[in-house]
Amino acid sequence: MSMKMMNAAYLVDNVALLSLQEKQEGVEFHCFDMDRKVQIAEGHIGWDMLDKQPFSTLEESARVAALKEIPQLDGLTVAPVAPEMLEQMRGGRKVLWQMKKADPELENAKNIRFITSSYEDRFKIPDGSAVEIEYPNRKFSARCEYMDEYHLRLGYDVLHICQLAEMLERGGGTCRPEPLITEERSAWDLGSKAEAGEAILAVCKVNQSLEPVPLGSYRGFKMELTFDSFQKEYQVLLKGEMTHRVPIGTSAAGNIQRLDNALAGIPARLEKAEQQLDNLRSQQEAAQAELGKPFPQEAELAEKSARLAELDALLNMDDRGNDDPDREKTTEKPSVLAELRDRAGRIPPMAHRDDEEVAL
User: Which one, 74, 119, 136, 192, has the greatest CB density within 10 A?
Assistant: First the structure.
């Protein structure tokens, strides 16, 4: 065991932050999801296991052993970063405090900060570390030197951290901590993934069954190949507690990347499902509370319903009267001409004097 306790942090596969802390009984590790800022794994590696690792340093032995305990990660790209990045994680501050307690030099460490043009933190690296910068037409690595909290020397240039972020965004470039060249990730491991991708395509070519075909396992998930007749495409089923469908393309390496992307998206889908479940539970509780409440217009509804029944009864009675065949028909109205003749018969004749002239 070294006199100075080992503390280290790594960005793994550009998706997770791994911390290592040497203890009396071995090495303690914590792993956090970079997007959700939550812990996804933790554990302890004893000295008996560390002594079996074929590496020359405790840090490398602990890193390899820890990654084997985290099935969510491949560990194909591992880049050293500043332990100060733990401050961004939920529960990470406690881990960082323990590191600083064991190694007081971390308190005054010069860490170089990388941000977006809107000053959102991306990552931090120790002074003297390198970054890997990639533009659409070129890719290179450059050593970084701490100048102050807002400035760094990148190669031969002194830049403001926001100036660097704007340069990258304008040129469509990306920047990340330079990955380690690790002996534990050999060409054989990368080659085995390529072979697995080719094997999946080979099964697709010869498969004529409509039933799922077992393919083995990948990162702790059982794999089956199936053909979706509706989508007219082959799919790999990743089976754990749930089944995840991954469409298969024509590229062997691309298919392996699709499997990795599907597995990387599981935590986000799980969080969304949990939110939907919480929402349904809230709706259920609200509905149950409403069931126990009396209807506020219940008396008014009963009164209106009774009045409506009375009106319906009266309308039904009128309808039955109109339909009665024995009902007397209305007497026809007398003729106007007949009435005038009747009146003319009752008028007395007019008397005429002898001296009056009558027009004939």
Answer: 74
3-state helix, strand, coil in the chain (%, to 5): 40, 30, 35
| More confident: 83 or 314 | 83
* Nearest partner of 177 among 79, 109, 31, 88, judged by Cα: 79
Whether the Cβ atoms of residue 243 and residue 266 lie closer than 8 Å to each other: no
How many angstroms from the chain centroid is the CA of residue 218?
23
Residue 259 predicted with pLDDT over 90: no
Distance of CA 24 to the CA centre of its chain: 41
What's the pLDDT band for 321 if we cut at 50, 70, 90? low
Please give the Cα distance from 45 to 281 (Å, whole number).
Answer: 40
Alpha-carbon distance of 166 to 116, in angstroms, equals: 8
Q: How far apart are CA 165 and CA 160, in angstroms?
A: 9
Residue with tokens 């509706």: 230
Cβ neighbours for 234, distance < 8 A, ≥ 6 positions apart: 204, 207, 225, 226, 227, 228, 247, 248
